[in-house]
């Protein structure tokens, strides 16, 4: 496509997306304003060099759509815990909550003071395990857990403590579509259980959060789907994925790989703790497009590379799946993982716009056109692909062998 053609395409996309633009939530980052349409002249394409996926005997801990591995320097020892502490509702920053369950009460954060039913509480409030209905401004959630609440700078910090299998069922329901086949739900349950046990403590207040940084846990949802998710968790109770050395696999998953999963070491770095591999998949391409300011790309590259960089100087390096696994600044010679660049872009433009690391980038004037496939980091279990294969008769065990060829299912007590 010539320069004029690219400019016209980007201009059309800007016009077409402006009316449908949505602001992202506090976790994903604020939506970036759009500047003027591209001129026809001055258009360039950021070059990408194809590269075969690297292999390694070991992958580093993840940081997903959902479950993404944590940095290797913080890699904790896997633990066969029976409970999971989860920081909940942080995205909503609640200052007042109504709780109904084994008891009913209203809790308010006043500075660093916790007010319970109108009375100051000198310590954190701890509520026994039960079925809790939690309501607040824009919130209506249900949790089967013990709760802990404290006040911090006018906000309520809430931690829910779940029994392991209750947590696995809730995550499985939150992370999948209502029509997901049962065998895909079983594979998701094993993957989620393995991930939370292998990831260790990822937050100061709790092992996990309820966002895509760890694993999504909505605390609400379609009742029939939750029942199916509970059945899936119950049918796989205590089963995890184990690496050849016996450690529990830090098994990531994502919404859609776009037809080929990504190499874990290429995306997350070494050593590999996922048990996953880059494999062809029957997942639909799931194409997406986004027009963003050129300045946003420059800022994202500067963050990812740890120093000043210009969008025009970027070279994108890909693995066999087509995912950007390395970004190079040709001016300085600095490079960074493609995952870091993808996340820097997503945090600025919005995760619903920059959906995956599998994209190309074309620059023109003060705008950039990103065209990609898939949704998420692309490593491990592809939820769209697993659902499609399960509808064709694949079992959970076959799905896990497909997406995690370097790990085997086993019981928690097995070494």
UniProtKB/TrEMBL annotation:
One Gene Ontology biological process: sporulation resulting in formation of a cellular spore
Q: Which UniProt keywords are given for this protein, alphabetically ordered?
A: Signal
What is the recorded name of this protein?
SpoIID/LytB domain-containing protein
Tell me the ranges covered by the Sporulation stage II protein D amidase enhancer LytB N-terminal domain, including all copies: 153-241
Kindly indicate whether the keyword DNA repair belongs to this entry.
no
Task: Spell out the InterPro entries in the cross-references.
Answer: SpoIID/LytB, SpoIID/LytB_N
Q: Which Pfam families would you find in this protein's record?
A: SpoIID
Specify the signal sequence span: 1-20
Region feature (Disordered): 41-85
């Amino acid at each position: 496509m010539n320069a004029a053609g690219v400019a016209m395409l980007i201009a059309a996309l800007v016009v077409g997306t402006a009316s449908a633009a949505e602001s992202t939530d506090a976790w994903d980052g604020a939506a970036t304003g759009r500047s003027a349409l591209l001129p026809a002249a001055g258009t360039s394409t950021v070059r990408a060099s194809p590269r075969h996926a690297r292999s390694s005997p070991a992958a580093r801990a993840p940081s997903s759509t959902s479950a993404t591995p944590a940095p290797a320097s913080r890699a904790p020892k896997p633990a066969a815990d029976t409970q999971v502490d989860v920081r909940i509702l942080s995205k909503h920053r609640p200052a007042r909550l109504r709780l109904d369950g084994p008891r009913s009460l209203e809790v308010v954060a006043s500075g660093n003071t916790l007010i319970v039913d109108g009375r100051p509480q000198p310590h954190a409030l701890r509520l026994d395990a039960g079925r809790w209905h939690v309501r607040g401004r824009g919130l209506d959630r249900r949790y089967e857990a013990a709760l802990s609440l404290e006040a911090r700078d006018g906000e309520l910090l809430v931690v829910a403590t779940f029994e392991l299998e209750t947590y696995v069922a809730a995550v499985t329901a939150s992370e999948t579509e209502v029509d997901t086949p049962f065998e895909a739900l079983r594979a998701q349950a094993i993957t989620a259980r393995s991930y939370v046990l292998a990831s260790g403590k990822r937050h100061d207040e709790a092992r996990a959060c309820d966002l895509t940084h760890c694993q999504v846990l909505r605390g609400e949802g379609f009742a029939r789907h939750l029942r199916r998710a509970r059945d899936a968790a119950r049918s796989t109770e205590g089963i995890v994925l184990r690496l050849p050395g016996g450690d529990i696999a830090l098994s990531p998953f994502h919404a859609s790989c776009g037809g080929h999963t990504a190499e874990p070491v290429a995306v997350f770095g070494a050593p590999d703790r996922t048990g996953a591999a880059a494999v062809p998949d029957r997942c639909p391409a799931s194409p997406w497009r986004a027009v963003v300011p050129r300045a946003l790309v420059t800022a994202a590259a500067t963050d990812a590379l740890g120093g000043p960089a210009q969008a025009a100087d970027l070279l994108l390096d890909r693995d066999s799946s087509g995912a950007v696994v390395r970004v190079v600044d040709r001016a300085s010679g600095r490079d960074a993982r493609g995952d870091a660049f993808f996340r820097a872009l997503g945090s600025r433009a919005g995760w619903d716009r920059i959906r995956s690391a599998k994209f190309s980038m074309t620059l023109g004037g003060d705008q950039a056109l990103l065209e990609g496939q898939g949704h998420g980091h692309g490593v491990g279990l592809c939820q769209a692909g697993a659902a499609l294969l399960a509808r064709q008769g694949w079992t959970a065990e076959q799905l896990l062998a497909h997406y995690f060829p370097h790990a085997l299912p086993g019981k928690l007590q097995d070494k």
